[in-house]
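Input set for joint prediction.
Command: fold jointly, output tokens.
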Amino acid sequence: MTMTSTTDTAQEAPAPVNTEHLAAQRRQRLLAWIMPVIAMTLAIGAWEFWVWFNEIPHYLIPAPSRIFTTLMVDGPSLMQSAWFTIRLTFFSLLLAIIGGVFLGALFALSRPIEMSLFPFAVILQVTPVVAIAPLILIYVHSTFTALLICAWIVAFFPILSNTVIGLRSADHNLRDLFTLYRATPWQRLRYLLAPSALPYFMAALKVAGGLALIGAVVAEFVAGATGANTGLASRIIESSFRNEIPRMFAALVLVSLLGVIIFLMTSLASKLALGHWHESEIRREQ
Amino acid sequence: MTRPLIRMDRVRKEFGKTVLAVEDMTLTINEGDFISLLGPSGCGKSTALRMIAGLLPITAGTVTITPPEQKGEQDLGFVFQEPTLMPWATVYNNVWLPLRLAGTDRAEADERVRAALVEVGLSKFEKSYPRALSGGMKMRVSIARAMVTRPRILLMDEPFAALDEMTRMKLNNDVMRLAAEHRLTVVFVTHSVFESVYLSNRIVVMAARPGRVAADLEVAAPWPRDDSFRTSTDYVEECRRVSATLKGTLHDDDIDH
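tokens >
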């Protein structure tokens, strides 16, 4: 004999489809794309017109068209710098993830370790990276490594703290269930703690992605425009010394673009990891 | 059939130094019993259940469970008041969990998970995530998960308290049927007189402050029962008797909450 269910399985008879509602939904989706594009275009157009109308010289405020031309002309050399910043950002983010998750897991497993190491993490976090960077640049010979350390310091903390909170957030009844079934510590981590921590980790990743870029740029500023391998921030300083305002803007555009790409990537990662179950990523059907 | 399975001998539970949750509870639960622990909130019935499950350290006394003939098998199933499902896992994976943790062979586990889902009528929903299910369905997943290891003992901690009346009645029948078919020994915690009389052949009435056994009543009506029992005079009589016993254990200040 089996339990048959008539009340629980929702099997509704086909009813007339609410076409108006569906059309409204389609409109909503379309608007979500069109509105930002229109707003952006208008803003850039207004900028262009304003510069042209007032005949503002390009060394004061360059028109968007001018910035675009600069991007094209200086493209190869700017792209080289962009590549430097991209590597710096992603490498520091990767190390922040590895370090944050590893240390977070260690903290979650052992209170004494947390108690002894957490102050160091807090000190690293609260000391402004601009203030530490000059020292790191003195002690570390490779500029790239020094910059990497600076960016890492900034991106590391949110991942660490969220991983710790996440690993501790598992439902207490589920914990009891795992105890009842005599789960090994590894099984507990793999099947219970890690999935429970995932939403927290993903939230931290979104923050850390942006912070890694900020850390990289700030560190480059402190390091200044030295050496052959320089990132976008160094190019901004260098252009500023030479009064090449359009190139400053061009480099700035690339930095923003990089930030947007990082944001989209981390959002996508979060959607992929949590989309099928977690409230934060589920779109409610209406 | 009356072999003792679970023995609680002067079991005592203190939380901190001031709260005595369970005072020297002695209780023998026989194989095949469907036993309800009935009492007001704070009488220590859930605490007692958790101590039987080994989820709470015991302050004094002992809980002994007669070991099963097959060693190493998971002997206990536990159903919590909330469905307690993993939201990130499908219905199938939720039910699979106990076997996965025990390292059961994949093919064997698959067979058992499917069988358990058939038994609670959720085969069609094995790929669903818990959030897509109703409260009653979630509870049935939880029951399937408890049953998948084929335990001898099923411990249930007010499992249907949060469900609506219709769903609760249906799940009561389902649990009774499962218990009869698999010859389970069930310890069922509830605060509902009607539920305890309908389900069990033995009702242990507990009193609060400190939590202790106040009465141990037998419900003589034939078991397993069906809905016709709910309208019988026997049922009404038993409910009246159990209610009176329960009322006798209450303190004056218990009534208002």
